[in-house]
Amino acid sequence: MTATNPFTSTxxxxxVEGPFHAHELGLTGRNSGILLESLRHDVTPTGLHYLxxxxxxxxxxxxxxxxVDIAGRVRNAGAVSLDAIKLLPSRTLxxxxxxxxxxxxxxxxxxxxxxxxxxxxxxxxxxxxPLRDLLDRTGLLDDAMEIAFIGADRGFDRGHEHDYGRSLKxxxxxxxxxxxVWAMNGTPLLPQHGYPLRLVVPGWYGMASVxxxxxxxxxxxxxxGFQQISSYQYRPAPDGPTTPVTLMRVKSLMVPPGIPNFxxxxxxxxxxxxxxxxxxxxxxxVPVSKVEVGVDGVWREAELExxxxxxxxxxxxxxxxxxxxxxxxxxxATDDNxxxxxxxxxxxxxxxxxxxxxxxxxxxx
Amino acid sequence: MTATNPFTSTxxxxxVEGPFHAHELGLTGRNSGILLESLRHDVTPTGLHYLxxxxxxxxxxxxxxxxVDIAGRVRNAGAVSLDAIKLLPSRTLxxxxxxxxxxxxxxxxxxxxxxxxxxxxxxxxxxxxPLRDLLDRTGLLDDAMEIAFIGADRGFDRGHEHDYGRSLKxxxxxxxxxxxVWAMNGTPLLPQHGYPLRLVVPGWYGMASVxxxxxxxxxxxxxxGFQQISSYQYRPAPDGPTTPVTLMRVKSLMVPPGIPNFxxxxxxxxxxxxxxxxxxxxxxxVPVSKVEVGVDGVWREAELExxxxxxxxxxxxxxxxxxxxxxxxxxxATDDNxxxxxxxxxxxxxxxxxxxxxxxxxxxx
Lengths: 365, 365
What we know:
5 helices; homodimer; 6-stranded mixed sheet; Immunoglobulin-like; mainly beta; 365 residues; Sulfite Oxidase, Chain A, domain 2; 22 strands
């Protein structure tokens, strides 16, 4: 597409439109979303949780010997073994995680990266030690204002060679819900989900939940890693000012009713009462207050079930009396902050935070 | 792309070139391959085995009550419960499975379908009952010449509404290695891999291994299901004669050395001795006899380990003394039949059986 050297060029890639480039297809082959029909499951089945891995999955044949370096503005710097972390009290949280780039592929023009349509989400039971308990033992110095988390995954992006890393501000990092996780759905982490140790930051888009965690560094100034300051920034105008991507925005998805056409995924269903259902979630522990279902542009409120925990998606359900013909179904959620999914995508230069309503075309016979 | 009705048009879709269409991207989002770095694992980690599912994954909340109808040219027709099948003697086989469409996306022009590059492969330990043992108890009539296997997954393809189904000739079906499988890598099948019961046909491309198995029918004539006679046919000329897709062709893949660029996946590595390694396999239980590694077009033989079973891929390894600059690495395997991977793709109208050598571009610093 461009003749620039991918190892040295620091330019943002030019936006694209229309069909998808081979590199976008390559990323889609590596990074998988859920199958929409798997939204039936309260907890996403193993292997169907979305994945967005920037670089190669590190090869870790066994967890024995895995250590995390604790460094920077702490009283007791040094390496802590995973075995020692596992001896601390643990918690299990059901958490819905979504990729910040989910919906990027629906924007026009779009930034050339992973062109998610809408499936970059999943819910799992994560088991680990609250980061706070480890930091309590390590002793944060008073001037530690950010905590950086560095993974074992290494590569290049826009000319920067780096290990994947992200930071949280001190107060966010000290929430009891930020976990150092070693198990997912009751079994050891899979390699592609961060084996043997990862961070999980509930309520945030997935980029905060650093995998293959190797290093925790307390800083007395803002973290300047590439993934913190040069990526994961909202940029509503191509060269305009930026704001950091943080909490997930309110969103909903439905299980497409009926049966599909193999190639187009167009849906066919029989006339009569149809159960339309799916999931909805928001960020930062904010509850979803309402889900509406649109049938050919007419919106009605769905039945919303109480969520099973502060960070897990909610179930919703709506009965539609389907009449023969072509129809468009849609869903949109509203959260307790009063934020509602937009009917059209909000454009973003990097393709972040697109929480447009979910639409499904169906043919009723 | 075309205005034809996906539910009624029986036409093959016109071939395409260049960038990838939204429907191709959609299929890539649903159907995931392995990550090449996961070739390090003898058995593909859970969640990374390739998936090609034509229609939606059926929702099966529990295996209790699952039954398979045995019908047609048998002495004792009727439903057999999964519980009863599990009481029969079981076997565990390590099997490498590959999608017949693997490599379709590398062809020019290509058939618009799942545009696999090269990652549609995986190796698992499958546990189940030999189909033969069930058929022995059922009693095949002498005129049963084919056995058809029908799954619970239903949809449309080129105007045909059908449950996914495939058949095997009597003698192939009666091999002791064709299994009715309920466990993968020691745990119950995941929904996306055919829970609660599937067929596994070792040595064949994956289309033969019908998932969510609901019906077994013994026929005294060739099975005429859509996936048997209208799809999965080699067609070397666009409108020429066809031959059925059956056994896997010889193939090899390597773990790309070095570290990647996020977007292009271009590789960077340090000069000096580099371990180049990967896996190789063929179909029908035929062993791989040789793997060669090409460095800038010069081929040398790799070290090949004995395979761990008649249907599992073999490991190979080669040490390359990398000098700074741009290089192309490649691998190609040869099997005991004398078949070798071609240096250029063999074109096929439907994009089946492309076993071209694997090539990786690297920059050495």
